[in-house]
Amino acid sequence: MTALTQTMGPSWDLSDEYESVDDPKIQVDLSELNDSLDKVGSLNVVLEQQNAVDAVAAAQALAKLSEQCERLLENVYVFANCLLSVNAQDEGAQKLNGSLQIYRKRLGDLFEPLAQYIDGASEEVIAQYLSDPEILPSAFLVKHSRQRRHENLSLAEESIVNGLSQSGIHAWGDLYDQLSGSLQCEVLVGNETQNMGVAQASALTMSADDDQRQCAWQAINDAWESQDESCAAAINAIAGWRLEMCEQRSGEREVHYLDAPVHMNRISRQTLDTLLEVAFDNKALAQRAAKLQARAYAKEGFGPWDNRAPAPIIGGGGIVPIAFNEAIDIIATAYGDIDPSMGAFVRMMADNKWVEGTVGPAKRPGAYCTGFTKSRHPRVYMTFSGGQSDVITLAHELGHAFHSWVMRDLPDSQLSYGMSLAETASTFGETLVRDALLAKSTSQQEKLDIMWEEMSALTSFMLNIPTRFEFEQNFFEARRKRPLRPQELKNMMSEAWQSWYGDALTEPDPMFWASKLHFYISGLSFYNFPYLFGYLFSLGVYARKDASGGRFYEQYVALLRDTGRMSAEDLAAKHLNVRLDEASFWQATIASLESRVDAFEQLLDEIDAG
Ligand SMILES: [Zn+2]
Known about the structure:
The chain is mainly alpha-helical. The protein has helices spanning 3-7, 24-47, 52-86, 91-120, 123-129, 139-146, 155-167, 169-182, 198-204, 210-225, 228-248, 259-264, 269-281, 283-296, 324-338, 340-351, 388-406, 419-422, 424-440, 444-479, 486-501, 512-515, 529-542, 552-561, 568-575, 583-591, 594-609; strands spanning 184-189, 192-197, 355-356, 368-371, 378-381. The protein contains 27 helices and 5 strands. Strands 3-5-4 form a 3-stranded mixed β-sheet, with helices on both faces. A two-stranded antiparallel ribbon has the order 1-2. β4 (368-371) and β5 form a beta hairpin. The protein is globular. The protein starts with a helix and ends with a helix. It binds zinc ion (ZN). Zinc ion is lined by residues 396, 400, 423, 426.
Protein backbone atom coordinates (compact mmCIF):
# COMPACT_ATOMS: atom_id res chain seq x y z
CA MET A 1 0.00 0.00 0.00
CA THR A 2 1.38 3.41 -0.89
CA ALA A 3 1.26 6.42 1.39
CA LEU A 4 -1.28 7.93 -0.96
CA THR A 5 -3.88 5.20 -0.57
CA GLN A 6 -3.47 5.21 3.20
CA THR A 7 -4.21 8.89 3.58
CA MET A 8 -6.62 9.31 0.68
CA GLY A 9 -10.18 10.35 1.46
CA PRO A 10 -13.28 8.21 0.80
CA SER A 11 -15.64 8.54 -2.12
CA TRP A 12 -19.07 9.98 -1.52
CA ASP A 13 -22.41 8.26 -1.67
CA LEU A 14 -25.07 10.00 -3.77
CA SER A 15 -27.49 7.06 -3.91
CA ASP A 16 -29.95 8.61 -1.43
CA GLU A 17 -30.75 11.09 -4.19
CA TYR A 18 -30.39 9.05 -7.39
CA GLU A 19 -28.70 5.71 -8.06
CA SER A 20 -27.27 6.75 -11.44
CA VAL A 21 -28.07 8.94 -14.46
CA ASP A 22 -30.48 6.19 -15.53
CA ASP A 23 -32.38 6.23 -12.26
CA PRO A 24 -36.12 6.54 -13.15
CA LYS A 25 -36.44 9.03 -10.25
CA ILE A 26 -34.68 11.60 -12.45
CA GLN A 27 -37.36 11.33 -15.13
CA VAL A 28 -40.07 11.52 -12.45
CA ASP A 29 -38.58 14.81 -11.18
CA LEU A 30 -38.14 16.22 -14.67
CA SER A 31 -41.68 15.36 -15.73
CA GLU A 32 -43.00 16.98 -12.55
CA LEU A 33 -40.91 20.01 -13.50
CA ASN A 34 -42.44 19.97 -16.98
CA ASP A 35 -45.97 19.80 -15.59
CA SER A 36 -45.29 22.78 -13.35
CA LEU A 37 -43.73 24.80 -16.16
CA ASP A 38 -46.79 24.09 -18.32
CA LYS A 39 -48.96 25.90 -15.79
CA VAL A 40 -46.89 29.09 -15.90
CA GLY A 41 -48.02 30.41 -19.30
CA SER A 42 -51.68 30.84 -18.42
CA LEU A 43 -50.82 32.45 -15.06
CA ASN A 44 -48.56 34.93 -16.85
CA VAL A 45 -51.53 35.99 -18.98
CA VAL A 46 -53.58 36.70 -15.83
CA LEU A 47 -50.62 38.59 -14.33
CA GLU A 48 -50.70 41.10 -17.17
CA GLN A 49 -54.45 41.66 -16.96
CA GLN A 50 -56.00 44.75 -15.40
CA ASN A 51 -57.82 42.94 -12.62
CA ALA A 52 -55.50 43.56 -9.68
CA VAL A 53 -57.07 40.91 -7.42
CA ASP A 54 -56.64 38.16 -10.00
CA ALA A 55 -53.11 39.37 -10.76
CA VAL A 56 -52.06 39.15 -7.09
CA ALA A 57 -53.43 35.62 -6.89
CA ALA A 58 -51.60 34.70 -10.09
CA ALA A 59 -48.34 36.20 -8.74
CA GLN A 60 -48.69 34.15 -5.56
CA ALA A 61 -49.31 30.98 -7.52
CA LEU A 62 -46.34 31.77 -9.77
CA ALA A 63 -44.03 32.34 -6.80
CA LYS A 64 -44.90 28.92 -5.38
CA LEU A 65 -44.44 27.27 -8.76
CA SER A 66 -41.11 29.03 -9.20
CA GLU A 67 -39.76 27.62 -5.94
CA GLN A 68 -40.99 24.17 -6.82
CA CYS A 69 -39.42 24.29 -10.29
CA GLU A 70 -36.10 25.56 -8.94
CA ARG A 71 -36.03 22.81 -6.34
CA LEU A 72 -36.64 20.06 -8.92
CA LEU A 73 -34.23 21.42 -11.50
CA GLU A 74 -31.47 22.14 -8.98
CA ASN A 75 -31.72 18.67 -7.48
CA VAL A 76 -30.97 16.97 -10.81
CA TYR A 77 -28.41 19.64 -11.71
CA VAL A 78 -26.47 19.14 -8.46
CA PHE A 79 -26.44 15.39 -9.10
CA ALA A 80 -25.07 15.78 -12.64
CA ASN A 81 -22.41 18.17 -11.39
CA CYS A 82 -21.36 15.90 -8.56
CA LEU A 83 -20.76 13.14 -11.12
CA LEU A 84 -18.88 15.46 -13.47
CA SER A 85 -16.65 16.72 -10.66
CA VAL A 86 -15.43 13.19 -9.98
CA ASN A 87 -15.18 12.32 -13.67
CA ALA A 88 -15.33 15.15 -16.21
CA GLN A 89 -15.54 12.51 -18.99
CA ASP A 90 -18.73 10.90 -17.62
CA GLU A 91 -20.77 10.73 -20.84
CA GLY A 92 -24.11 10.09 -19.15
CA ALA A 93 -23.63 13.02 -16.77
CA GLN A 94 -22.54 15.26 -19.66
CA LYS A 95 -25.74 14.46 -21.53
CA LEU A 96 -27.92 14.91 -18.47
CA ASN A 97 -26.25 18.23 -17.72
CA GLY A 98 -26.72 19.37 -21.32
CA SER A 99 -30.41 18.45 -21.32
CA LEU A 100 -30.95 20.61 -18.23
CA GLN A 101 -29.87 23.77 -20.05
CA ILE A 102 -33.13 23.88 -21.97
CA TYR A 103 -35.09 23.68 -18.71
CA ARG A 104 -32.98 26.44 -17.21
CA LYS A 105 -33.58 28.78 -20.14
CA ARG A 106 -37.30 28.00 -20.14
CA LEU A 107 -37.51 28.56 -16.39
CA GLY A 108 -35.73 31.92 -16.69
CA ASP A 109 -38.01 33.14 -19.49
CA LEU A 110 -41.24 31.93 -17.88
CA PHE A 111 -40.64 33.55 -14.50
CA GLU A 112 -39.27 36.87 -15.78
CA PRO A 113 -42.78 38.47 -15.82
CA LEU A 114 -43.15 37.64 -12.10
CA ALA A 115 -39.85 39.37 -11.29
CA GLN A 116 -40.97 42.43 -13.24
CA TYR A 117 -44.38 42.40 -11.59
CA ILE A 118 -42.84 42.35 -8.10
CA ASP A 119 -40.53 45.23 -8.94
CA GLY A 120 -43.23 47.27 -10.61
CA ALA A 121 -46.16 46.80 -8.22
CA SER A 122 -47.36 49.48 -5.76
CA GLU A 123 -46.77 49.13 -2.01
CA GLU A 124 -50.44 48.18 -1.48
CA VAL A 125 -50.27 45.42 -4.06
CA ILE A 126 -47.05 44.09 -2.48
CA ALA A 127 -48.72 44.05 0.94
CA GLN A 128 -51.55 41.97 -0.54
CA TYR A 129 -49.08 39.72 -2.30
CA LEU A 130 -47.22 39.06 0.97
CA SER A 131 -50.43 38.40 2.93
CA ASP A 132 -50.31 34.72 1.93
CA PRO A 133 -48.48 32.89 4.77
CA GLU A 134 -46.57 30.82 2.25
CA ILE A 135 -45.36 33.96 0.45
CA LEU A 136 -44.60 36.03 3.54
CA PRO A 137 -41.17 34.45 4.16
CA SER A 138 -39.99 36.06 0.90
CA ALA A 139 -40.65 39.57 2.31
CA PHE A 140 -36.94 40.37 2.65
CA LEU A 141 -36.11 39.24 -0.89
CA VAL A 142 -39.03 41.22 -2.32
CA LYS A 143 -38.08 44.35 -0.42
CA HIS A 144 -34.42 43.94 -1.32
CA SER A 145 -35.17 43.53 -5.01
CA ARG A 146 -37.45 46.58 -4.98
CA GLN A 147 -34.70 48.81 -3.57
CA ARG A 148 -33.35 49.20 -7.07
CA ARG A 149 -36.68 49.52 -8.87
CA HIS A 150 -36.03 53.22 -9.53
CA GLU A 151 -33.32 52.06 -11.94
CA ASN A 152 -35.70 50.12 -14.17
CA LEU A 153 -36.21 51.26 -17.74
CA SER A 154 -39.36 50.48 -19.69
CA LEU A 155 -39.89 46.82 -20.55
CA ALA A 156 -39.10 47.50 -24.21
CA GLU A 157 -35.88 49.34 -23.31
CA GLU A 158 -34.78 46.61 -20.90
CA SER A 159 -35.33 44.06 -23.62
CA ILE A 160 -33.18 46.05 -26.11
CA VAL A 161 -30.39 46.49 -23.56
CA ASN A 162 -30.46 42.81 -22.75
CA GLY A 163 -30.34 41.85 -26.43
CA LEU A 164 -27.48 44.25 -27.27
CA SER A 165 -25.42 43.29 -24.23
CA GLN A 166 -24.71 39.85 -25.71
CA SER A 167 -22.64 41.41 -28.49
CA GLY A 168 -21.68 44.37 -26.33
CA ILE A 169 -20.40 44.11 -22.76
CA HIS A 170 -20.48 40.31 -22.69
CA ALA A 171 -18.59 40.03 -25.99
CA TRP A 172 -15.71 42.01 -24.44
CA GLY A 173 -15.68 39.61 -21.50
CA ASP A 174 -15.66 36.68 -23.95
CA LEU A 175 -12.76 38.23 -25.86
CA TYR A 176 -10.76 38.40 -22.66
CA ASP A 177 -11.53 34.75 -21.86
CA GLN A 178 -10.40 33.79 -25.35
CA LEU A 179 -7.17 35.74 -24.91
CA SER A 180 -6.36 34.31 -21.51
CA GLY A 181 -7.09 30.81 -22.76
CA SER A 182 -4.83 31.06 -25.81
CA LEU A 183 -2.05 33.40 -24.67
CA GLN A 184 1.35 31.68 -24.57
CA CYS A 185 4.49 32.64 -22.72
CA GLU A 186 8.04 31.41 -22.36
CA VAL A 187 9.26 30.45 -18.92
CA LEU A 188 12.66 29.23 -17.87
CA VAL A 189 12.10 26.00 -15.94
CA GLY A 190 15.36 24.55 -14.68
CA ASN A 191 17.80 25.08 -17.57
CA GLU A 192 15.19 24.88 -20.24
CA THR A 193 12.89 27.52 -21.74
CA GLN A 194 9.38 26.12 -21.98
CA ASN A 195 6.45 27.42 -23.95
CA MET A 196 3.20 27.27 -22.00
CA GLY A 197 -0.19 28.89 -21.52
CA VAL A 198 -0.52 31.71 -18.96
CA ALA A 199 -2.64 29.49 -16.67
CA GLN A 200 0.14 26.94 -16.52
CA ALA A 201 2.71 29.66 -15.93
CA SER A 202 0.49 31.05 -13.21
CA ALA A 203 0.72 27.73 -11.34
CA LEU A 204 4.51 28.28 -11.27
CA THR A 205 3.97 31.50 -9.29
CA MET A 206 3.06 29.13 -6.42
CA SER A 207 6.46 27.46 -6.57
CA ALA A 208 8.66 27.36 -3.47
CA ASP A 209 11.58 28.42 -5.70
CA ASP A 210 12.02 32.20 -5.52
CA ASP A 211 13.56 32.59 -8.98
CA GLN A 212 10.97 30.33 -10.54
CA ARG A 213 8.13 32.47 -9.26
CA GLN A 214 9.71 35.70 -10.44
CA CYS A 215 10.56 34.24 -13.81
CA ALA A 216 7.01 32.94 -14.36
CA TRP A 217 5.52 36.26 -13.23
CA GLN A 218 7.75 38.16 -15.66
CA ALA A 219 6.81 35.85 -18.53
CA ILE A 220 3.10 36.26 -17.79
CA ASN A 221 3.44 40.03 -17.71
CA ASP A 222 5.42 40.09 -20.98
CA ALA A 223 2.68 38.03 -22.60
CA TRP A 224 -0.06 40.35 -21.39
CA GLU A 225 1.97 43.38 -22.42
CA SER A 226 1.92 42.09 -25.99
CA GLN A 227 -1.91 42.26 -25.79
CA ASP A 228 -2.18 45.55 -23.95
CA GLU A 229 -4.21 47.35 -26.66
CA SER A 230 -6.79 44.53 -26.78
CA CYS A 231 -7.05 44.43 -23.01
CA ALA A 232 -7.35 48.21 -22.80
CA ALA A 233 -10.11 48.15 -25.42
CA ALA A 234 -11.96 45.46 -23.43
CA ILE A 235 -11.62 47.03 -19.99
CA ASN A 236 -12.54 50.49 -21.35
CA ALA A 237 -15.60 49.08 -23.14
CA ILE A 238 -16.82 47.11 -20.11
CA ALA A 239 -16.53 50.14 -17.80
CA GLY A 240 -17.91 52.43 -20.50
CA TRP A 241 -20.98 50.24 -20.89
CA ARG A 242 -21.58 50.22 -17.14
CA LEU A 243 -21.20 54.00 -16.83
CA GLU A 244 -23.57 54.54 -19.75
CA MET A 245 -26.14 52.22 -18.14
CA CYS A 246 -25.85 54.14 -14.85
CA GLU A 247 -26.51 57.32 -16.81
CA GLN A 248 -29.53 55.81 -18.58
CA ARG A 249 -30.91 54.46 -15.30
CA SER A 250 -30.55 57.79 -13.50
CA GLY A 251 -33.96 59.13 -14.59
CA GLU A 252 -35.51 59.10 -11.13
CA ARG A 253 -32.33 59.59 -9.10
CA GLU A 254 -28.63 59.31 -9.74
CA VAL A 255 -27.31 55.77 -10.09
CA HIS A 256 -23.68 55.20 -9.05
CA TYR A 257 -21.45 52.43 -10.40
CA LEU A 258 -21.04 51.07 -6.85
CA ASP A 259 -24.82 50.79 -6.28
CA ALA A 260 -25.16 47.42 -7.97
CA PRO A 261 -22.15 45.76 -6.26
CA VAL A 262 -23.14 46.89 -2.75
CA HIS A 263 -26.77 45.91 -3.35
CA MET A 264 -25.73 42.49 -4.53
CA ASN A 265 -23.72 42.03 -1.33
CA ARG A 266 -26.61 43.30 0.77
CA ILE A 267 -24.52 45.99 2.42
CA SER A 268 -24.72 49.80 2.31
CA ARG A 269 -22.34 52.26 0.68
CA GLN A 270 -21.54 53.63 4.13
CA THR A 271 -20.47 50.17 5.28
CA LEU A 272 -18.25 49.73 2.23
CA ASP A 273 -16.62 53.14 2.72
CA THR A 274 -16.02 52.46 6.42
CA LEU A 275 -14.54 49.03 5.74
CA LEU A 276 -12.00 50.40 3.27
CA GLU A 277 -11.12 53.40 5.42
CA VAL A 278 -10.38 51.17 8.41
CA ALA A 279 -8.36 48.78 6.24
CA PHE A 280 -6.34 51.73 4.94
CA ASP A 281 -5.73 53.07 8.44
CA ASN A 282 -4.43 49.65 9.47
CA LYS A 283 -2.36 48.83 6.42
CA ALA A 284 0.83 49.01 8.52
CA LEU A 285 -0.10 45.72 10.22
CA ALA A 286 -0.57 43.93 6.91
CA GLN A 287 2.63 45.50 5.55
CA ARG A 288 4.45 44.17 8.59
CA ALA A 289 3.12 40.68 7.80
CA ALA A 290 4.34 41.03 4.19
CA LYS A 291 7.80 42.11 5.37
CA LEU A 292 7.97 39.12 7.71
CA GLN A 293 7.04 36.82 4.83
CA ALA A 294 9.92 38.29 2.83
CA ARG A 295 12.20 37.75 5.83
CA ALA A 296 11.19 34.08 5.97
CA TYR A 297 12.57 33.82 2.43
CA ALA A 298 15.67 35.79 3.50
CA LYS A 299 14.76 38.57 1.09
CA GLU A 300 14.88 42.35 1.28
CA GLY A 301 11.25 42.82 0.35
CA PHE A 302 8.08 41.31 -0.97
CA GLY A 303 7.70 41.21 -4.76
CA PRO A 304 4.38 41.02 -6.63
CA TRP A 305 5.39 37.45 -7.59
CA ASP A 306 5.45 36.51 -3.89
CA ASN A 307 1.70 36.85 -3.38
CA ARG A 308 1.04 33.17 -3.79
CA ALA A 309 4.35 31.79 -2.52
CA PRO A 310 4.11 28.72 -0.28
CA ALA A 311 5.88 28.58 3.09
CA PRO A 312 9.63 28.22 2.59
CA ILE A 313 11.09 24.82 3.37
CA ILE A 314 13.30 25.04 6.44
CA GLY A 315 13.82 21.33 7.00
CA GLY A 316 14.34 19.86 10.45
CA GLY A 317 11.30 17.81 11.42
CA GLY A 318 9.30 16.32 8.60
CA ILE A 319 5.62 16.58 7.86
CA VAL A 320 3.60 13.57 8.94
CA PRO A 321 0.67 12.88 6.59
CA ILE A 322 -2.75 12.95 8.23
CA ALA A 323 -5.19 10.14 7.41
CA PHE A 324 -8.74 11.13 6.49
CA ASN A 325 -10.27 9.65 9.65
CA GLU A 326 -7.71 11.45 11.72
CA ALA A 327 -8.60 14.70 9.95
CA ILE A 328 -12.27 14.10 10.76
CA ASP A 329 -11.26 13.55 14.41
CA ILE A 330 -9.27 16.78 14.51
CA ILE A 331 -12.08 18.79 12.93
CA ALA A 332 -14.84 17.17 15.00
CA THR A 333 -12.89 17.88 18.18
CA ALA A 334 -12.24 21.53 17.23
CA TYR A 335 -15.85 22.06 16.10
CA GLY A 336 -17.08 20.19 19.19
CA ASP A 337 -15.30 22.68 21.45
CA ILE A 338 -17.89 25.24 20.34
CA ASP A 339 -20.74 22.81 20.95
CA PRO A 340 -20.96 19.00 21.00
CA SER A 341 -23.58 19.12 18.22
CA MET A 342 -21.06 20.78 15.89
CA GLY A 343 -18.64 17.90 16.44
CA ALA A 344 -21.48 15.43 15.90
CA PHE A 345 -22.31 17.19 12.64
CA VAL A 346 -18.75 16.61 11.34
CA ARG A 347 -18.91 12.91 12.23
CA MET A 348 -22.34 12.61 10.61
CA MET A 349 -20.95 14.05 7.36
CA ALA A 350 -18.24 11.38 7.37
CA ASP A 351 -20.51 8.52 8.53
CA ASN A 352 -23.13 9.32 5.88
CA LYS A 353 -20.40 9.38 3.21
CA TRP A 354 -21.32 12.93 2.30
CA VAL A 355 -17.68 13.85 1.67
CA GLU A 356 -15.84 13.10 -1.59
CA GLY A 357 -12.14 12.98 -0.86
CA THR A 358 -10.57 10.49 -3.25
CA VAL A 359 -7.49 11.22 -5.36
CA GLY A 360 -8.08 10.57 -9.05
CA PRO A 361 -6.76 11.65 -12.44
CA ALA A 362 -10.20 12.51 -13.89
CA LYS A 363 -11.27 14.61 -10.92
CA ARG A 364 -11.80 18.33 -11.29
CA PRO A 365 -9.45 20.43 -9.19
CA GLY A 366 -10.67 22.55 -6.29
CA ALA A 367 -13.06 22.09 -3.43
CA TYR A 368 -16.65 23.10 -2.87
CA CYS A 369 -19.76 22.46 -0.84
CA THR A 370 -23.07 21.81 -2.54
CA GLY A 371 -26.45 20.52 -1.46
CA PHE A 372 -29.45 18.63 -2.77
CA THR A 373 -32.46 20.90 -2.87
CA LYS A 374 -35.13 18.28 -2.20
CA SER A 375 -33.59 16.54 0.83
CA ARG A 376 -31.51 19.60 1.89
CA HIS A 377 -28.61 17.21 2.43
CA PRO A 378 -25.18 18.76 1.84
CA ARG A 379 -22.14 17.27 0.10
CA VAL A 380 -18.49 18.30 0.29
CA TYR A 381 -16.17 17.82 -2.67
CA MET A 382 -12.38 17.87 -2.54
CA THR A 383 -9.20 15.89 -3.13
CA PHE A 384 -7.80 14.71 0.19
CA SER A 385 -4.23 13.42 0.21
CA GLY A 386 -3.17 13.97 3.80
CA GLY A 387 -1.57 17.40 3.83
CA GLN A 388 -2.25 19.99 6.53
CA SER A 389 -3.77 22.23 3.88
CA ASP A 390 -6.20 19.41 3.00
CA VAL A 391 -7.36 19.31 6.60
CA ILE A 392 -7.92 23.06 6.52
CA THR A 393 -9.76 22.87 3.20
CA LEU A 394 -11.98 20.12 4.63
CA ALA A 395 -12.66 22.27 7.70
CA HIS A 396 -13.55 25.19 5.41
CA GLU A 397 -16.00 23.21 3.27
CA LEU A 398 -17.55 21.52 6.33
CA GLY A 399 -18.18 25.07 7.60
CA HIS A 400 -20.23 25.77 4.46
CA ALA A 401 -22.04 22.46 4.98
CA PHE A 402 -22.79 23.35 8.61
CA HIS A 403 -24.16 26.72 7.50
CA SER A 404 -26.64 25.04 5.13
CA TRP A 405 -27.43 22.33 7.71
CA VAL A 406 -28.62 24.81 10.35
CA MET A 407 -30.80 26.45 7.67
CA ARG A 408 -32.30 23.22 6.37
CA ASP A 409 -35.80 23.80 7.79
CA LEU A 410 -36.16 27.35 6.45
CA PRO A 411 -38.35 28.34 3.48
CA ASP A 412 -36.61 28.32 0.07
CA SER A 413 -36.84 32.10 -0.18
CA GLN A 414 -34.62 32.49 2.91
CA LEU A 415 -31.78 30.20 1.91
CA SER A 416 -29.63 32.35 -0.35
CA TYR A 417 -27.22 34.94 0.97
CA GLY A 418 -24.92 37.54 -0.54
CA MET A 419 -21.23 36.89 -1.13
CA SER A 420 -20.36 39.16 1.82
CA LEU A 421 -21.85 36.64 4.29
CA ALA A 422 -21.25 33.45 2.32
CA GLU A 423 -17.84 32.77 3.88
CA THR A 424 -18.84 33.37 7.50
CA ALA A 425 -19.16 29.74 8.60
CA SER A 426 -16.39 28.43 6.34
CA THR A 427 -13.73 30.91 7.49
CA PHE A 428 -14.91 30.35 11.05
CA GLY A 429 -14.43 26.58 10.74
CA GLU A 430 -11.11 27.04 9.00
CA THR A 431 -9.76 29.35 11.71
CA LEU A 432 -10.96 27.01 14.43
CA VAL A 433 -9.14 24.03 12.93
CA ARG A 434 -6.04 26.02 12.02
CA ASP A 435 -5.72 27.08 15.65
CA ALA A 436 -6.22 23.45 16.73
CA LEU A 437 -3.54 22.22 14.30
CA LEU A 438 -1.17 24.91 15.48
CA ALA A 439 -1.68 23.88 19.10
CA LYS A 440 -0.81 20.25 18.34
CA SER A 441 1.98 20.86 15.79
CA THR A 442 5.38 19.67 16.94
CA SER A 443 7.87 20.72 14.25
CA GLN A 444 8.86 24.24 13.23
CA GLN A 445 8.00 23.40 9.63
CA GLU A 446 4.44 22.49 10.59
CA LYS A 447 4.07 25.69 12.59
CA LEU A 448 5.56 27.72 9.76
CA ASP A 449 3.19 26.16 7.22
CA ILE A 450 0.11 27.03 9.25
CA MET A 451 1.18 30.53 10.22
CA TRP A 452 2.34 31.22 6.68
CA GLU A 453 -1.18 30.51 5.40
CA GLU A 454 -2.50 32.91 7.99
CA MET A 455 -0.09 35.65 6.96
CA SER A 456 -0.84 35.04 3.27
CA ALA A 457 -4.55 35.45 3.95
CA LEU A 458 -3.89 38.62 5.90
CA THR A 459 -1.77 40.23 3.18
CA SER A 460 -3.97 39.16 0.32
CA PHE A 461 -7.24 40.26 1.94
CA MET A 462 -5.91 43.44 3.50
CA LEU A 463 -3.46 44.62 0.84
CA ASN A 464 -4.05 42.87 -2.47
CA ILE A 465 -7.85 43.04 -2.46
CA PRO A 466 -7.94 46.76 -1.54
CA THR A 467 -5.33 47.43 -4.26
CA ARG A 468 -7.77 45.97 -6.77
CA PHE A 469 -10.63 48.00 -5.36
CA GLU A 470 -8.66 51.24 -5.44
CA PHE A 471 -7.56 50.67 -9.02
CA GLU A 472 -11.08 49.81 -10.17
CA GLN A 473 -12.57 52.85 -8.48
CA ASN A 474 -9.93 55.24 -9.83
CA PHE A 475 -10.38 53.70 -13.25
CA PHE A 476 -14.17 54.18 -13.25
CA GLU A 477 -13.69 57.81 -12.21
CA ALA A 478 -11.17 58.47 -14.98
CA ARG A 479 -13.20 56.53 -17.54
CA ARG A 480 -16.08 58.98 -17.09
CA LYS A 481 -14.03 61.45 -19.16
CA ARG A 482 -12.50 59.16 -21.80
CA PRO A 483 -11.05 55.71 -22.43
CA LEU A 484 -7.59 55.23 -20.91
CA ARG A 485 -4.46 54.33 -22.83
CA PRO A 486 -2.49 51.20 -21.79
CA GLN A 487 0.29 53.32 -20.26
CA GLU A 488 -2.24 55.22 -18.17
CA LEU A 489 -3.73 51.95 -16.93
CA LYS A 490 -0.26 50.73 -15.96
CA ASN A 491 0.48 53.92 -14.06
CA MET A 492 -2.86 53.81 -12.29
CA MET A 493 -2.30 50.20 -11.28
CA SER A 494 1.23 50.89 -10.00
CA GLU A 495 -0.05 53.80 -7.91
CA ALA A 496 -2.70 51.57 -6.33
CA TRP A 497 -0.04 48.99 -5.37
CA GLN A 498 2.14 51.72 -3.94
CA SER A 499 -0.67 53.23 -1.92
CA TRP A 500 -1.48 49.96 -0.13
CA TYR A 501 1.81 48.07 0.01
CA GLY A 502 4.10 51.09 0.55
CA ASP A 503 7.66 50.05 1.34
CA ALA A 504 6.63 46.42 1.95
CA LEU A 505 6.86 45.94 -1.80
CA THR A 506 10.01 45.84 -3.93
CA GLU A 507 8.10 46.87 -7.06
CA PRO A 508 4.47 47.16 -8.20
CA ASP A 509 2.67 44.93 -10.70
CA PRO A 510 1.79 47.35 -13.51
CA MET A 511 0.14 44.73 -15.76
CA PHE A 512 -2.22 43.49 -13.05
CA TRP A 513 -5.11 45.37 -14.72
CA ALA A 514 -4.66 42.99 -17.69
CA SER A 515 -3.62 39.76 -15.97
CA LYS A 516 -6.42 39.71 -13.38
CA LEU A 517 -9.53 38.03 -14.73
CA HIS A 518 -11.80 39.70 -12.17
CA PHE A 519 -11.71 43.06 -13.96
CA TYR A 520 -13.19 41.40 -17.05
CA ILE A 521 -16.18 39.56 -15.61
CA SER A 522 -18.95 41.15 -17.67
CA GLY A 523 -21.72 40.03 -15.31
CA LEU A 524 -20.50 41.87 -12.22
CA SER A 525 -18.07 44.59 -11.16
CA PHE A 526 -15.95 45.20 -8.06
CA TYR A 527 -15.49 41.50 -7.47
CA ASN A 528 -12.98 42.35 -4.75
CA PHE A 529 -14.34 44.07 -1.64
CA PRO A 530 -16.66 41.13 -0.73
CA TYR A 531 -13.50 39.11 0.00
CA LEU A 532 -12.22 41.71 2.44
CA PHE A 533 -15.65 42.04 4.02
CA GLY A 534 -16.10 38.27 4.39
CA TYR A 535 -12.63 37.78 5.86
CA LEU A 536 -12.97 40.45 8.54
CA PHE A 537 -16.62 39.76 9.28
CA SER A 538 -16.02 36.08 9.96
CA LEU A 539 -12.96 36.84 12.09
CA GLY A 540 -15.11 39.33 14.00
CA VAL A 541 -17.57 36.53 14.75
CA TYR A 542 -14.68 34.21 15.66
CA ALA A 543 -13.25 36.76 18.08
CA ARG A 544 -16.51 36.55 20.06
CA LYS A 545 -16.47 32.81 20.57
CA ASP A 546 -14.92 32.94 24.05
CA ALA A 547 -16.65 36.07 25.25
CA SER A 548 -20.33 35.23 25.13
CA GLY A 549 -20.78 33.61 28.53
CA GLY A 550 -21.43 30.11 27.23
CA ARG A 551 -24.17 31.28 24.90
CA PHE A 552 -21.99 31.61 21.83
CA TYR A 553 -23.19 28.50 19.99
CA GLU A 554 -26.82 29.52 20.28
CA GLN A 555 -25.99 33.04 19.04
CA TYR A 556 -23.81 31.70 16.23
CA VAL A 557 -26.52 29.41 14.87
CA ALA A 558 -29.12 32.18 15.14
CA LEU A 559 -26.80 34.47 13.15
CA LEU A 560 -26.25 31.87 10.43
CA ARG A 561 -29.98 31.22 10.15
CA ASP A 562 -30.62 34.89 9.49
CA THR A 563 -28.04 35.26 6.69
CA GLY A 564 -30.66 34.71 3.99
CA ARG A 565 -33.29 37.06 5.34
CA MET A 566 -31.62 40.31 6.33
CA SER A 567 -28.96 42.79 5.28
CA ALA A 568 -25.46 42.34 6.69
CA GLU A 569 -25.96 45.50 8.79
CA ASP A 570 -29.20 44.24 10.35
CA LEU A 571 -27.62 40.85 10.98
CA ALA A 572 -24.63 42.38 12.77
CA ALA A 573 -26.83 44.71 14.81
CA LYS A 574 -29.15 41.91 15.88
CA HIS A 575 -26.61 39.20 16.66
CA LEU A 576 -23.34 40.97 17.40
CA ASN A 577 -24.74 44.23 18.67
CA VAL A 578 -22.39 46.19 16.41
CA ARG A 579 -22.73 48.69 13.57
CA LEU A 580 -20.97 47.74 10.36
CA ASP A 581 -21.14 51.30 9.05
CA GLU A 582 -19.02 52.49 11.96
CA ALA A 583 -15.29 51.87 12.41
CA SER A 584 -15.19 50.22 15.84
CA PHE A 585 -16.20 46.66 14.85
CA TRP A 586 -13.71 46.53 11.99
CA GLN A 587 -11.02 48.20 14.05
CA ALA A 588 -11.39 45.69 16.89
CA THR A 589 -11.32 42.78 14.47
CA ILE A 590 -8.11 43.94 12.81
CA ALA A 591 -6.56 44.58 16.23
CA SER A 592 -7.27 40.94 17.12
CA LEU A 593 -4.98 39.92 14.22
CA GLU A 594 -1.98 41.70 15.68
CA SER A 595 -1.14 38.88 18.10
CA ARG A 596 -1.04 36.48 15.13
CA VAL A 597 1.53 38.64 13.36
CA ASP A 598 3.50 38.81 16.62
CA ALA A 599 3.43 35.02 16.90
CA PHE A 600 4.71 34.68 13.34
CA GLU A 601 7.59 37.03 14.07
CA GLN A 602 8.43 35.08 17.19
CA LEU A 603 8.51 31.84 15.21
CA LEU A 604 10.90 33.40 12.68
CA ASP A 605 13.12 34.50 15.57
CA GLU A 606 13.14 30.94 16.88
CA ILE A 607 13.97 29.54 13.46
CA ASP A 608 16.80 32.08 13.05
CA ALA A 609 18.13 31.19 16.48
CA GLY A 610 18.30 27.60 15.19
ZN1 LIG B 1 -15.70 29.04 0.81
